[in-house]
TrEMBL record:
<dbReference type="GO" id="GO:0032259">
    <property type="term" value="P:methylation"/>
</dbReference>
<protein>
    <submittedName>
        <fullName>Methyltransferase</fullName>
    </submittedName>
</protein>
<dbReference type="InterPro" id="IPR029063">
    <property type="entry name" value="SAM-dependent_MTases_sf"/>
</dbReference>
<keyword id="KW-0489">Methyltransferase</keyword>
<dbReference type="GO" id="GO:0008757">
    <property type="term" value="F:S-adenosylmethionine-dependent methyltransferase activity"/>
</dbReference>
<dbReference type="Pfam" id="PF08241">
    <property type="entry name" value="Methyltransf_11"/>
</dbReference>
<dbReference type="InterPro" id="IPR013216">
    <property type="entry name" value="Methyltransf_11"/>
</dbReference>
<keyword id="KW-0949">S-adenosyl-L-methionine</keyword>
<feature type="domain" description="Methyltransferase type 11">
    <location>
        <begin position="54"/>
        <end position="144"/>
    </location>
</feature>
<keyword id="KW-0808">Transferase</keyword>
């Protein structure tokens, strides 16, 4: 990258400028869209009342949903305008602050669990983020990661790197992320696909894990700190 290109500043500018667009879509995604299954998946492993960090929380609607489910949530995002928007609708026990996923402003072992939905892809070093998440999670704690799958349109944000252009999105395949998580000391304990609406139910049920990941719009991982 050129010296004039600063990844974190570019990410901040992008999401600062997308607050209105994103907040208009976020509620529907969490209520009945591509993110509707995340809270139930999370609850399978993390008891309610647990302290959790929502890293890359965006407009905060996901944090709100988790708080409504009984979790003590702290949302963090690199975009000051996203945090400003989220703070306007903050509820009791729901906190928001600006912060960098690669250098989280939290003490060691501060949380029972962490959730990161479509946020690790927007970091310069996803591997460094996984190590940082391990630092802030308590022993035997969990991290839930939502990673864009191969069929997700937003993956186009990283396409121009094939031309040697500077981009701010590190998309990766679910199986690549899983290997990276294993190599950085996480135990993969669960996974679940989110598909586009036009994928028939009988097709989903007959696929191996590898083919489920290949067809997914998003893959949900549950990682455990070993």
């Amino acid at each position: 990258m050129t010296q004039s290109f600063q990844w974190h500043n570019e990410v901040k500018k992008k999401w600062d400028s997308n607050v209105t667009f994103w907040s208009e879509r976020s509620r529907s995604m969490w209520e009945n869209g591509s993110r509707a299954t995340i809270a139930p998946f999370f609850a399978k492993h993390v008891p309610s009342t647990s302290s959790i960090a929502d890293v890359g929380c965006g407009d905060g609607y996901g944090s709100y949903k988790l708080n409504q489910a009984g979790y003590d949530v702290t949302g963090i995002d690199l975009s000051p305008k996203m945090i400003e928007h989220a703070s306007q609708v903050a509820q009791e026990r729901l906190k928001f602050q600006v912060g960098d996923l690669e250098a989280l402003p939290f003490a060691d072992e501060a949380f029972d669990a962490v959730i990161a939905i479509n946020s690790i892809e927007w970091t310069e070093s996803p591997c460094a983020v996984l190590k940082e998440l391990k630092r802030v999670v308590k022993p035997a704690g969990y991290v839930c990661v939502g990673l864009l799958g191969p069929t997700a349109g937003p993956r186009q944000n990283s396409y121009r790197r094939l031309f040697g252009e500077e981009v701010i999105c590190n998309t990766m395949m679910p199986w690549e992320f899983e290997q990276m998580a294993t190599e950085t000391g996480w135990k993969v304990v669960d996974g679940e696909a989110v598909y586009k609406k036009n994928v028939p139910q009988d097709v989903k049920e007959g696929l191996s894990k590898e083919l489920q990941q290949a067809l997914s719009f998003m893959w949900l991982f549950m990682l455990k700190k070993s």
